[in-house]
Write a structure and sequence with these properties.
By secondary structure, the protein is an alpha/beta fold. It folds into two domains: 159 residues, Rossmann fold, CATH 3.40.50; 64 residues. It has eleven helices and seven strands. It has a four-stranded parallel sheet, sandwiched between helices. Helix 1 crosses helix 2. The protein is globular and about 55 Å long.
């Protein structure tokens, strides 16, 4: 199956939209091939502001109708306790809200951007999507992340080379309580790294320090800049350690 055929079979569809590489390409194709579509973005404390801005910019550029839902995940004790399967509860909460909005807007099915190279068996969030009967057209069409980047580049989408960016909660170790203060510290430090010219990295919380993960190509720069990074992070973390295991 190809995406144009999928949208002929499902001409009315809503998309759980994040603004990342996969959901952006899916939304672009839905706009191109479906009779009617809607991108739905759920803005919570787990989504950084730059992702939110990218999502809005993408939809504006391509004439994609966008519905923004605002919600909090920090009032859910199961989520903020951060168990091993936290992603299941978070995805269930967010996509339940998106699905409710989709049905309210008259869309019978809800799609997401899971692709053919995603390991669905090892991701608790995928179980929540399955329970909610969310359909993943990119996966059904056999499109891998590499395929989607290439097709996005050919289509002129600015997201084609955007690094994968998991939600901010993934920076916090399992079992450590998630707080608004921690999320703010992580996002602030990652914004600092963006301003320094880094683009693919993670600032991970550890007990008493921040663990910085960068790509192999950025490792020499990060190592040389570590003192400066330490000073810039000082308001949020007392110590920064550069992970020798690159991304």
């Amino acid at each position: 199956m190809i995406l144009s055929d999928f949208f002929q079979q499902h001409p009315q569809a809503a998309i759980g939209f994040s603004g990342g590489v996969d959901s952006a390409y899916l939304a672009y194709c839905a706009k191109k091939y479906a009779q009617n579509m809607l991108a739905i973005y759920y803005k919570s404390e787990f989504q950084p502001e730059f992702e939110f801005k990218d999502a809005k910019r993408f939809c504006t550029q391509h004439g994609i109708p966008l519905k923004i839902l605002y919600g909090s995940v920090l009032n859910d004790d199961t989520i903020i306790d951060n168990p091993k399967n936290r992603c299941y509860y978070c995805k269930q909460r967010i996509f339940s809200a998106i699905q409710k909005e989709a049905l309210t807007q008259g869309f019978p099915i809800l799609l997401d951007g899971t692709n053919a190279s995603d390991e669905v068996n090892d991701r608790p969030g995928m179980l929540a999507l399955k329970e909610l009967h969310v359909i993943s057209p990119l996966r059904l069409c056999g499109l891998t992340k590499k395929d989607i980047r290439l097709l996005s580049k050919e289509a002129g989408l600015f997201t084609w080379d955007k690094p994968s960016y998991a939600c901010l909660a993934t920076r916090i170790p399992t079992g450590m309580k998630i707080t608004g203060e921690l999320l703010h510290a992580i996002e602030s430090c990652e914004n600092i790294l963006f301003s320094m010219g880094f683009s693919d990295f993670r600032v991970r919380v550890r007990d008493g320090y921040a663990l910085l993960q960068v790509t192999e190509s950025d490792y020499p720069k990060a190592s040389a800049s570590l003192d400066h990074i330490q000073q810039a992070f000082a308001a949020y973390f007392p110590k920064v350690v550069l992970d020798t295991q690159v991304r």
